[in-house]
């Protein structure tokens, strides 16, 4: 049996389309799961080699279901990321008119991306959330709902037709997907990388978040995502999900993570992996004095001082 990748299903999701852009997907058995949680649990239990799930979109930010699953449970790490441009179609049974639609369904992350379109075109329609956009299409096929927001490519799979296409409230909307597996040595740095972590404060105090972010700022590391998530320990108790430019093998990133480990209650490393948004040629120049050579030179100077060689 070939190694398998789990993904948020059923067949016909944007997740499946994004997964199939990975070259290695052609050599894996791709297995749809009903939820992000079940896909990630398949990796934790060894049923799947890796899972492919959405983690962020350009309209609403982080996908909280995925972030929360990575925060809790047995550790997992991100190996790869994929960006996919998103536009929706309104899928209906053949012969359905816009005036016939009383209920619509899609994944909750889709609602902020089509809210204004619905207000203008389906102001009386009732929204019902589904496990995925493709699952919403399946429910329309079964007669549960009148229409679904999903990818136009899902229409044929579920015997539906696209009543409207190119639906989106925000131009150039994108969703970021990640390939997640069990902990392993990170791939070698490419020069255009991202490092993801989750951090927990030791206690709540004035300037606490500033202290955490200072570990990155003083080393010239740009943050690409900062999102708080409740820990479940009571109102006001949060952890922070962070994406930072760079690779854990970079001196500046390694020192920042070491600094966080020193001052935080807990740090969970979620991986260092190639960025999907830019190649090496498009990476911003490093903040002055933050290259590996700069850190090595500074360490050598300290060693000289310790030896009495000024």
Describe this entry's structure for a reader.
- With 310 residues, this protein is of the alpha/beta class.
- Helices cover 27% and strands 30% of the residues.
- The chain contains nine helices and 15 strands.
- It has helices at residues 14-19, 36-44, 64-71, 111-121, 133-141, 154-157, 208-217, 251-263, 292-306; strands spanning 4-8, 29-33, 50-57, 61-62, 77-85, 88-92, 103-106, 126-129, 147-150, 161-167, 174-181, 193-200, 223-230, 238-245, 266-274.
- The strands form three sheets. Strands 1, 2, 3, 4, 5 and 11 form a six-stranded mixed sheet that branches. Strands 8-7-9-6-10 form a five-stranded mixed sheet.
- It is elongated.
- The termini are far apart.
- The mean pLDDT is 93.
| Tertiary shape | elongated
What gap, in angstroms, lies between the N and C termini? 63 Å
How would you characterize the largest beta sheet? Answer: 6 strands, mixed
What is the gyration radius calculated from CA atoms? 22 Å
Low-pLDDT stretches are: none
What is the succession of H and E elements?
A: EHEHEEHEEEHEHEHEEEHEEHEH
List keywords for this structure.
six-stranded mixed β-sheet, five-stranded mixed β-sheet, elongated, 310 residues
Report a brief summary of the structure.
By secondary structure, this protein is of the alpha/beta class. The protein has nine helices and 15 strands.
